[in-house]
UniProtKB/TrEMBL annotation:
Membrane spanning stretches: 31-62, 74-93, 108-126, 138-162, 182-203
Record-level GO cellular component terms: membrane
Keywords: Membrane, Transmembrane, Transmembrane helix, Transport
UniProt membrane topology term: Multi-pass membrane protein
Location in or out of the cell: Membrane
Gene Ontology terms for molecular function: channel activity
Name by which UniProt lists this protein: Major intrinsic protein
Keyword Transmembrane among UniProt keywords: yes
Family: Belongs to the MIP/aquaporin (TC 1.A.8) family.
């Protein structure tokens, strides 16, 4: 239960930060989002692995660094945290976003960039946090947080820059994205995670 609680806490603060920063139009929203992910990974990585992302959990499982019995409980904790965080953002900011102003993202472009940056995120996680060659390093949280920061700045205007199905559920619940876009997030991000795990195993094996 400790692992699942840590996954809930980390994912909650990630999605809560995304919601408040984006909905208020904060100029430094990508920096805030990358930073909160970094500090939550440093805070909880030694307990749960610091996934805070269902796609990362899938990649870690396929890579051989997450037990099968933990996959579904991790997903439940992460998606529940995203939902609770989004509902609290709606309370704090007095309701969901007006449906008439939901962002309209090009589907194919969204799929491509979400796939690529989720691949990049999972690739970084697997290499800096699960590889024997980098085991025990002190930079893994920084590397992972900066990957999200880079992605948010680079393609946030194209797809919304989720790279995380729990974030996708959160922004949909807040009214920031459509249900169709949430579907794009789910498919592209889980696909990116699976390909990242495959690439890791092809290059490094199970080390």
């Amino acid at each position: 239960m400790k692992k699942y609680l840590v996954e809930f806490i980390g994912t909650f603060f990630l999605v809560f930060t995304v919601g408040l920063a984006v909905r208020q139009g904060a100029a430094l929203a990508p920096l805030a989002i990358g930073s909160v992910l970094m500090v939550m990974i440093f805070a909880g990585g030694h307990i749960s692995g610091g996934h805070f992302n269902p796609a990362v959990t899938l990649a870690a499982f396929l890579r051989g660094r997450c037990e099968r019995r933990d996959v579904v409980p991790y997903w439940i904790a992460q998606f529940l945290a995203g939902l609770v965080a989004a509902l609290l953002v709606n309370v704090v900011l007095q309701g969901r976003v007006d449906p008439s102003v939901i962002a309209q993202h090009p589907r194919l472009a969204s799929f491509i960039v979400e796939f690529l940056f989720t691949f990049a995120l999972c690739w970084v996680v697997l290499n800096v946090a699960t590889s024997k060659n980098t085991m025990g390093n002190s930079f893994y949280g920084l590397a992972i947080g900066f990957t999200v920061l880079v992605g948010a700045i680079t393609v946030g205007g194209i797809s919304g820059g989720a790279f995380n199905p729990a974030v996708g559920l959160g922004v949909f619940t807040m009214g920031l994205e459509s249900f169709a876009q949430f579907g794009v997030y789910l498919v592209s991000e889980f696909a990116g995670a699976a390909v990242a795990a495959l690439a890791y195993r092809l290059i490094n094996g199970l080390d």
